[in-house]
TrEMBL record:
The keyword Lyase applies. It comes from Gottfriedia solisilvae. Pfam families: GATase (PF00117). Keywords: Amino-acid biosynthesis, Cytoplasm, Glutamine amidotransferase, Histidine biosynthesis, Hydrolase, Lyase. NCBIfam families: IMP_synth_hisH. IGPS catalyzes the conversion of PRFAR and glutamine to IGP, AICAR and glutamate. The HisH subunit catalyzes the hydrolysis of glutamine to glutamate and ammonia as part of the synthesis of IGP and AICAR. The resulting ammonia molecule is channeled to the active site of HisF. The gene is hisH. This is Imidazole glycerol phosphate synthase subunit HisH. Heterodimer of HisH and HisF. Residues 4-193 form the Glutamine amidotransferase domain. InterPro entries: Class_I_gatase-like, GATASE, Imidazole-glycPsynth_HisH. One of its GO terms (cellular component) is cytoplasm. It is found in: Cytoplasm.
């Protein structure tokens, strides 16, 4: 069972439709029992970091997500969901995240327009199976005011917005997309298709 976690901070219907368009059958749920038996997890999200983490805590899902990740279950974080995978966010005075990836979420510098909203190109850092259906410099759709600051070892693809914005990250079974694949036309669908296939048949990070 592939679970999209519903914790009240994402456009779940459009994400579910996008997954189903590439024959990735998903269930939207926030029930611990469903997530306990999940074969993959998608963590979407928009809005404030602190509010999202508090809601995951209220639903008693934090330990379950971490346990599933540590057991090798594929995890995909989207937009805010990707940022929650990291250790800490500077937003609103600072708040701890899930800590599945090392790094801090910081505000995009104000020498560019914030939020970063609209279409931007992907530039590849690595060649992994997740990218097999997309080409470098294809466009994806972003809506965010914060970005990940890390060693970049986990960054698969980035976008240029005055600073390098980590756009796709991957470490073992953990994947993040800062943009919204469900709003990114054919490119986004192709990334979801690749994630589906890698969950079913292959290793996410294999070349």
């Amino acid at each position: 069972m592939n679970i999209i976690i519903d914790y009240g901070v994402g456009n779940l219907d459009s994400l579910k439709r996008a997954c189903e368009e590439v024959d990735f059958q998903v269930v939207v749920s926030n029930k611990i029992e469903d997530i306990k038996h999940a074969s993959s997890i998608i963590l979407p999200g928009v809005g404030a970091y602190e509010a999202a983490m508090k809601e995951l805590n209220n639903l008693n899902l934090i330990d379950m997500i971490i346990e599933k990740a540590n057991n090798g279950i594929p995890i995909l974080g989207i937009c805010l969901g990707m940022q929650l995978l990291y250790e800490f966010s500077d937003e609103n005075g600072g708040y701890e995240g899930l800590g599945l990836l090392k790094g801090t979420v910081k505000q995009i510098p104000n020498f560019v327009k914030v939020p970063h909203m609209g279409w931007n190109k992907l530039f590849f850092n690595k060649n992994i199976n997740l990218l097999k259906y997309v080409n470098e410099e294809e466009y994806v759709y972003f809506v965010h005011s914060y970005y990940v600051d890390s060693t970049n070892e986990e960054v698969v693809a980035f976008s240029d917005y005055g600073v390098k914005i980590p756009a796709i990250v991957n470490q073992n079974n953990i994947v993040g997309m800062q943009f919204h694949p469900e709003k990114s036309s054919e490119t986004g669908l192709n990334l979801l298709k690749a994630f589906k296939e890698l969950c079913l048949y292959d290793s996410i990070s294999s070349n």
